Amino acid sequence: MNVSELAKEAEISPHVVRFYARTGLLRPGRNPSNGYKVFGQNEAKRLRFIRMAQCLGYSLAEIAEFLRRLEDGETPCDLMEKILRERLVENQEKIEKFELAQALMERALRHLENRTWSTANMDGLCGHFQSLVAETKT
């Protein structure tokens, strides 16, 4: 397969395939008659692995390490598990922050819609915002 064929099969841009080849994530062969990159089934499998790993939140550097380990005959599963566990904790923390921000925004919007805030100066608005933040923390 050439770049375009692999990209079409993977439903991604040819630029992405070229980028992965440039960074060493994919290792295409060369067509001897024209020097173009050619990709076999192994590279198509690598590309599927790369895309699935990205969907799980792994960085390209992490994916490169997984692929290196596989090439060296090692399993990357322990490292993959460790990283995934860390990401789950990080994501939960982010979700909690977003939920807090969402609740704060909803309260502020209700006050604005109901016109319960009628200040026209910075001190007044800051006071209103401080009371909303205090409500959210309790």
Please explain how this structure is put together:
Helices cover 71% and strands 3% of the residues. It has 138 residues and is mostly helical. It folds into two domains: 3-75, Multidrug-efflux Transporter Regulator, Chain: A, Domain 2 (Orthogonal Bundle), CATH 1.10.1660.10; 83-137, no CATH class. It has a two-stranded antiparallel sheet. The longest helix is centred in the C-terminal third of the chain and has 37 residues, at 77-113. The protein is elongated and about 75 Å long.
Q: Structurally, how many domains make up the residues?
A: 2
H/E series, N to C? HHEEHHHH
CATH fold description of the largest domain: Multidrug-efflux Transporter Regulator, Chain: A, Domain 2
Distance between the termini: 60 Å
Average pLDDT reading: 90
Count of DSSP-assigned helices: 6
Overall spatial form:
elongated
The biggest beta sheet is recorded as: 2 strands, antiparallel
The top-level CATH class of the largest domain is Mainly Alpha
**Could you give the count of β-strands?**
2
Strand content: under 5%
Derived from helix and strand composition plus strand pairing, the structural class reads mainly alpha
Helix percent reads: over 70%
CATH architecture of the largest domain: Orthogonal Bundle
The value of Rg in angstroms is 25 Å
Chart the SSEs and their pairings.
Blueprint: H1 3-10, H2 14-23, E1 29-30, E2 37-38, H3 41-55, H4 60-71, H5 77-113, H6 122-137
Antiparallel strand pairs: 1-2
Helix pairs in contact: 1-2, 5-6
Characteristic key phrases:
6 helices; mainly alpha; 138 residues; Multidrug-efflux Transporter Regulator, Chain: A, Domain 2; elongated; 2 strands
